[in-house]
Design a protein that fits this description.
It is a single chain. This protein has 255 residues and is an alpha/beta fold. 40% of the residues lie in helices and 24% in strands. The protein contains ten helices and 15 strands.
């Protein structure tokens, strides 16, 4: 297939699906993954897509979140390790809150395997489905406006429901972290859901991989000193350690 035809096909798949994965394109178009990366780079320069690790997506005018289809397929080992560590912190009979992040989905997957009894409050459709056949997990699902890019419920219906719910522990992620602004998100409504989850929990956990540090987004979820613990996969920058130690926020590494 000629390069011009390959680029046209990639654009067609983007319009059809909203996102593409490098490994799938490589197999479908019978070229190397490196060739696909160059194709995506060319299309990004033409403002036809946005590249991320493992693929690319077509940003919506109102929502720049990387589609969950892509996020589910990157940093899998890191998310699995974080998920395992979080389940160690969940005690029998706990009520926990989980957001719509793919890291939270891995917490749910590991909790399901653990056979611990717990109640899970979530705005994530995928987490609800994870516990569909579980005998040990009671699920409380928030309603609201469905957000396609995260497969989650947001908006005032979701936040109004959360205001009346309380938990032993909350596990939330974020788009980015900043020393000055704390945990931040690129979506205002998602940030509000995460903010209330943290406020309405006794213990507050932020679960993030190492790529989230030093790139603040627009909407604040919480300040760093609002947290009890940050669970991550690699050593964090020194300036974050100093701030977290000063505010007595525990740092846990999953290696």
């Amino acid at each position: 297939m000629l390069a011009v035809d390959r680029l046209k096909k990639i654009e067609e798949l983007l319009i059809e699906n909203g996102s593409v994965m490098i490994n799938n394109l490589s197999e479908l178009l019978d070229v190397s993954e490196e060739t696909i990366r160059r194709d995506l780079e060319k299309l990004e320069k033409e403002n036809k897509l946005k590249r991320v690790r493992g693929g690319a997506y077509l940003p919506e005018t109102s929502d720049n979140e990387v589609p969950i289809r892509i996020r589910e397929n990157i940093f899998l080992e890191e998310k699995q390790l974080i998920g395992q560590k979080c389940v160690e912190l969940i005690e029998e009979g706990d009520c926990i809150m989980l957001d719509s992040s793919t890291t939270a989905l891995y917490i749910a997957k590991n909790l399901n395997k653990s056979n611990k009894k717990a109640t899970v409050i979530t705005n994530s459709v995928k987490i609800v489905c994870e516990f569909e056949n579980s005998k040990n997990i009671k699920v409380i699902s928030l309603g609201g406006t469905f957000r396609k890019s995260t497969s989650s419920f947001i908006g005032y219906i979701a936040t109004d429901s959360l205001q009346k719910l309380f938990a032993d522990k909350s596990f939330v992620s974020c788009s980015s972290i900043s020393v000055d602004f704390g945990a931040t998100d690129n979506n205002e409504s998602e940030a509000m859901v995460r903010n209330i989850m943290l406020k309405n929990s006794v213990k507050k956990f932020l679960v993030v991989d190492h790529t989230k540090f030093d790139s603040p987004s627009v909407n604040q979820i919480c300040k760093l000193n609002d947290l009890d613990m940050i669970i991550t996969d690699k050593t964090i920058p020194k300036k974050y350690k100093e701030v977290l130690v000063r505010h007595e926020v525990e740092i846990v590494y999953c290696k």
